[in-house]
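Dear colleagues,

As part of the handover before I leave the project, I'm documenting each prediction I ran so the next person doesn't have to rerun anything. This entry is a single chain, and its sequence is reproduced below.
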Amino acid sequence: MLSKARVEALLAGFARVKVLVVGDLMLDRYVFGSVTRISPEAPVPVVHVTREESRPGGASNVALNIGALGGGSMVAGVIGADAAGDDLMQALVAAGINMDGVVKAPSVQTTVKTRVVAERQQVVRVDREMPPARFESAVESLCQGLPALVAAADAVVIEDYGKGVICQRVVDTVLAAARPGCVRVGFDPKDNNRLVLPWLTLATPNYREACFAAGLPETPLDDAGGSGTLREAGRILSARWGTELLMITLGAHGMYLLSKDGEARILPTVAREVFDVSGAGDTVIATALTALAAGATHAEAAELANHAAGVVVGKLGTAVCTPSELRGSFDPAEGAL
């Protein structure tokens, strides 16, 4: 366990770190209400709406998490010239996120996920999105600005939600500008097996994504969170992506960590209550990569990310972890890591 002094030192270092997030920008809308009856028209609940709100989602939520923890946050991606895009930009600007890398393209529609929530339970989700191919026309404009943004950053997150922005052209541009040893690069994958990433500082797939990327069947984990499939997926992806640190998130089982030297271990979850896991992966890569850029060891970065994820899953919807919440999740009586 990290000591209180070390947590404070790393958090103080976050303020000196600038992280660029490149990926699929989305707007998360929430419709909150209560249910007292079933509809006479169909066997579905009738939700009496009490309030509505919008939050940055997808790669936008990663940027928001970095900023909430005290890091300097920049975002690059594509949004539509529409009301949802305007709402997203306003929310990010209000949070102090640098928007220089955002391309507003009239040819696309901003991705919006609308969740209807009643009594802290999600009733339904409504997605408004375009086929990934529709983003191709905006990728060239995005890539033109990436080298300068990467050069101004200490680390870059490639955040793939499978909506069309993260393609080989974007990946190649980021990695060429970053260069190994100059700018740290983290990758949070989706179901995109075609991407070639010859080197990475960090990758944070969940177990299902890791199995898919490695071309393996997703077999059940044992009570301790391990399996032969997990270990094989880790070996394949660590070699394929050239990762310094591979973190495979395992839900209630915690995280599987595999360093470049071949050392592997499972870090148990620290979550006390789980209300909503949406966006937890965003928090993991945001915390871990920022920590690595601030001077954390692999073990320290994983510990911080594990605790930050434990905080956000106790909240409803996409959320962030603040420094005070992260401090509070550590027991000061524990010894150093």
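The two ends are 4 Å apart (CA to CA). The first strand starts at residue 18 and ends at 23.

All the best with the project,
I.
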